[in-house]
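User: I've been going back and forth on whether these two constructs are worth ordering. Before I decide, could you fold them both?

Assistant: Sure. I'll take them in the order you sent them. The first construct and its C-alpha cells:
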Amino acid sequence: MVSLKTLCSWPGCRHLAVLPDRYCEKHKPMAEERRKKLKERRQRYKGTSSQRGYNSAWRKARLAFLMEHPLCAECERQGKATVATCVDHIKPHRGNMQLFWNESNWQSLCQSCHSRKTAKEDGGFGNGKNISPKSIRQHG
C-alpha cells in the first residue's frame, strides 16, 4: 500500500510525515503537547465556547439565521455567490450578551471570509492582538 507523505509542519524540520499526520515521528509528541497547552491557555483566557454563549440556544438561532440568509455577505459584496456556513458577529461582542443576541449584529459568512475577519480582529495568524501584556501579567 502506498502512503502519501508531506514535509513535517514543525518549524525547520525537513523530515517527512505520513498523511493525514502533519508531523514526523520525532515531532508528533511535541506537537500534541503544544496543542494541549495552547488549548488550555485559550480556555483560561476566553472560557469554553459554552461559557461564551455558544450553546444549544445559539446553535438553533444560528441554523435559523443561515436558512434566512444562505449566502456569504462578504462574497456578495464582491459580486460572488458563496454558501454561508458561519454566523458572524459584525461587531465583536466581547462577552456582552445583549450584543451577542442582537440579530442586527449578525451576518452570514463562508468559512474563508469568517476566518479572515476573525484573524484580523482577534489577532490570528500571528498579528498579536489576542493577549495584552497586562493580561499576561495578571494570569501568568
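The second construct, handled the same way:
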Amino acid sequence: MKKLGMVVLASLILLSFVLLFAGGDSAQGPKLAYIDSTKVLQSYDKWIDLQAKYQEDVQFYQKKLNELAAEINDMKEKGAAADLINAKIAEYTQKQKQYSDLLNSEYQKKFAELEQEILQKIAEYAEIMGYDFVFNSKTMAYGNSKYDITAQFIEYLKSMNQ
C-alpha cells in the first residue's frame, strides 16, 4: 500500500512539474501519453507464462493441503483422540504458512523483475517515439483516450519477441 501511495505521489508531482514548467523546449509543449499497465502485463508472453507457472504451483500445494484436510476429516470420523486431531490441524496450519511463504519468496521477485523489464521497454519505446512523458493510467485521475498508447506499445512488445 505504501508503494502505491508513493507511486501516486511521485506521478502527481511529476505531472504538476510538467504542467507548470512545460513548453520551455518547444512551442507545442511536451509530448505526453499514458499506458494501461494491466493490459500490457496481461498481453506480455513472459508474464502470461510466469502466471501459469505460479498457478500450477498454487494448485500443487493446494492439493497437498487438501490431502492433509482429508486426513483430518478421516481422523474425526474415526473418533481419533482430540490431541492427535489438534496436532494434525497444527501441521496443516504450519504447512499452509510454509507453502504461502515459499510461493511468495519464489514469485514475488520474478514478478517484480518482469515489471521492471516492462518499465525499461516503455522507456525505450518512449524514446523511439519521441514521448517526453509516459504515465501509468492507474496513477491518473483522468486521461483523454487520444493519449492512450497501450495498444501501440503492446504491438511494439510483440514485434520485439518475434
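Notes on the second construct follow. Residues 82-129 form the longest helix (48 residues). Confidence is low (pLDDT under 50) at residues 16-25.
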